[in-house]
Amino acid sequence: MTEKNSYAFIRKWILIGFLLLIALISGMAIYLNYYWKPIITKRIKEAIHRSTDGLYRIDFDNVRVNFVTGRMNILNIRFTPDTLVYNEMKRDSIAPRHLYTVAVAELILKRIQPWKVYLDRDLEMGSIEIDHPSLEVNFSDIKNNNGTLKEDKRTAYQRLAPYLKSVKIGDIIFKNADFKYIDNSLTGRKVTALKDLYIKISDLLIDSASQFDKSRLYHTRDIYAELMGYNTITLDKNYTVQIKELRASTAGGYVRMNGIRVVPRFGEMEFSRRFKFQKPRYTMNIEEVQLNKVDYELLNRDRRLSASSLIFNRANFSIFLNRQIPDSIRKDRKSVV
């Protein structure tokens, strides 16, 4: 065999060996995906059901796992409450005040190690990306006959401990999220809807050491939210509220809004004729609003907003009042006399 033929022979067998290696890895990946899929599916559903005392269930169409890259795709996720369990909890005065419904077309998990979850009960991953999720939150001011509500004082770690020893996720990113908050404690219910919301949750950690860490909100180092081009109509239908940009951070403790406009939906005289008595008509144009040192824990727990300062930059206000319409205060005084 000549030297040239010898090199060709070696290259041929190297190529064959490389192709066999690829085929072996691919076959193992397919087998592992086939083997792990029902195990992962079962573990996820059991963990959600048991850790929420049966209040929530999770369903999805498919799970795809790539053991080479550590990537997992979960398709068409539905996270829904069980209304029968919720009504039982309300009767026992242990129902949570917030109820969540979530729908996600695709959930992408990166740098995850499924065998570590199964063998060591440690869930660690680099990031989670969620595109176009839909989140609905229902708030009810639930109390028992004594005006109180029993609280579940278990930490998130204590709830998860039977299934996982730790949860560590670098980043959780929500893109183009639709968010709806429904306040059932008010007459007629108040609905706040946000579209195309961007949220980045950094350094989520749940374990035995961090479960009582007061520096973490929802066990995270930071929750950053960004909203562009927000428009809504006030409850009385008299004004349009516009916000060009909104940014907020729990770690930074701030809320910053740019391009805020409160615009009446009716002209001056038309607006005044909508009421029996004098009613001020406001117009506001604010370039920037800053809230500093916001207490996000208080906001989350009691729905009360507390901040160290509120700063308006370059603000214009105008007020119109039609004096030809009766003054309600004067009429009230005459009726008393």
Question: Can you walk me through this structure?
Answer:
- It is a single chain.
- This protein has helices spanning 3-51, 83-91, 114-120, 156-160, 268-272, 296-302, 328-336, and strands at residues 56-59, 62-66, 71-81, 98-110, 122-131, 134-139, 166-183, 190-206, 222-233, 239-249, 254-264, 281-292, 309-320.
- With 337 residues, the chain is of the alpha+beta class.
- Strands 1, 2, 3, 4, 5, 6, 7, 8, 9, 10, 11, 12 and 13 form a 13-stranded mixed sheet that branches.
- A hairpin with a 4-residue loop joins strand 10 (239-249) and strand 11 (254-264).
- The model is unreliable at 332-337 (pLDDT under 50).
Number-wise, the strands total 13
Terminus-to-terminus distance: 124 Å
As residue ranges, the low-confidence spans are 332-337
What's the SSE pattern?
HEEEHEHEEHEEEEEHEHEH
Classify the beta-strand content into a percent band. Answer: 35-45%
Mean of pLDDT: 80
Supply the helix-strand structural class.
alpha+beta
Number of helices: 7
**What summary fits the major beta sheet?**
13 strands, mixed
Describe the global form.
elongated
Question: What is the percent of helical residues?
Answer: 25-40%
Q: Which radius of gyration do the C-alpha atoms yield?
A: 28 Å
